[in-house]
Amino acid sequence: MKTVQKIQDIDLKKLINKSYGDNHNLEEKVAGILQKIREQGDEALYDLTAAFDGVDLKGSGLRVTDQEIWEAYKKVDDVYLEAISQAMNNVRTYHEKQKRVSWFDIAEDGSILGQIIRPLQRVGIYVPGGTAAYPSSVLMNALPAAVAGVEEIVMVSPPLKDGSLLPEVLVAAAECGVKEIYKVGGAQAVAALAFGTATIAPVDKITGPGNIFVTLAKKMVYGTVDIDMLAGPSEILILADESAAPEELAADLLSQAEHDRLASAILISPYSDLLEKTVIEVERQLEALPRAEIARASWDTYGAAILVEDLEEGINLVNRIAPEHFELVVQDPFAWLGKVKNAGAVFLGRYTPEPVGDYFAGPNHILPTGGTARFYSVLSVDTFVKRISVINYSEEALQRDAAQIAYLARKEGLEAHARAIEVRQKWR
């Protein structure tokens, strides 16, 4: 059974720097996949899907048909449709509040400076498959893109063994208005989105989490296209005081541990009794968990119960780790919220367990991992727009500033820059 440890006994580097983005052993293999897609296009997609997923798509094709979507609707019940509809409403409403507007500022001399906000034209969203399928990830990718005004949203997801996609995933995509869906996953799907094939036109940006092959592929195609972030294994960190319930804390820790053997679940508290009881409760709940093998591997390797002197020291540790999901389960969470500097998302109080954010509340669940919350942000409407600067100098403004602009240009050794300014002074 896991023991309660103090900060000095914890390997923080192991907890903080765990990432999918730094595996040199696999980079050569992923690079080979990308090159194969560039050279062979669709044929390579068929071959790699057969090799990695055990699915032959040559008969049915790569693209999901309208008939497949229609069949998917017949396989889901009204309860699912109602739940997904309400979740979509919450996510859309939250992201609508993030929309930015173009702006212009007119100076007294007649000059105009401003910024134009434009949506990306075509984006690719990756929805994971494999050990679990995630219709919620469809919502979290597609709806912010739609709110931003993206015209073409393309979805890729690895097929099931029968060559289909999970009905719930297809229905979620259809409900979000995604009209272009392909049954491909892994590094090969990322490559197809980035470089294009005969069937899949290239996109401007790729978003959405995936396994290590997907993450490494996104890392390698960055520059050809934009990406959202390099997502790694799931993380949850909980800071709790004596008001927290061990049964609830254990359940929350396991909610992320069941994702992936590399997921991390960490509990921090100044109360040793709470830590010990929660560790016991984790063991008890593990026995009845359907994904117990995965959760056990995660908890044993990357789980921790850390004893700190007080909540202040706990918050400082949280900011060092910069977790993906941070639950602040204390009596007055808002009193401590202002001290949080690094986290993907913050969940306040015992009635806000992490799955509330995963599925329903509205904020996005595609979050920075592996300590990158120090500089990355949650996926949002901003992910799907670009900003264009606008400059309109008046004659008066140019004549006023010409000497200083030319001076700075010559300081950088760029004579033609200076002359481009001074040639216009001849008009006077």
UniProtKB/TrEMBL annotation:
Zn(2+) binds at residues 256, 259, 358, 417. Catalyzes the sequential NAD-dependent oxidations of L-histidinol to L-histidinaldehyde and then to L-histidine. GO terms for biological process: L-histidine biosynthetic process. GO terms for cellular component: cytosol. The keyword NAD applies. Its EC number is 1.1.1.23. It catalyses: L-histidinol + 2 NAD(+) + H2O = L-histidine + 2 NADH + 3 H(+). Belongs to the histidinol dehydrogenase family. PROSITE patterns: HISOL_DEHYDROGENASE. One of its GO terms (molecular function) is zinc ion binding. PANTHER family: HISTIDINE BIOSYNTHESIS TRIFUNCTIONAL PROTEIN, HISTIDINOL DEHYDROGENASE HDH. Keywords: Amino-acid biosynthesis, Histidine biosynthesis, Metal-binding, NAD, Oxidoreductase, Zinc. Substrate binds at residues 234, 256, 259, 325, 358, 412, 417. Binds 1 zinc ion per subunit. Pathway: Amino-acid biosynthesis; L-histidine biosynthesis; L-histidine from 5-phospho-alpha-D-ribose 1-diphosphate: step 9/9. This is Histidinol dehydrogenase. It comes from the Bacteria. NAD(+) binds at residues 126, 188, 211. The active site is at 324 (proton acceptor), 325 (proton acceptor). InterPro entries: Ald_DH/histidinol_DH (IPR016161), Histidinol_DH_CS (IPR001692), Histidinol_DH_monofunct (IPR022695), Hstdl_DH (IPR012131).
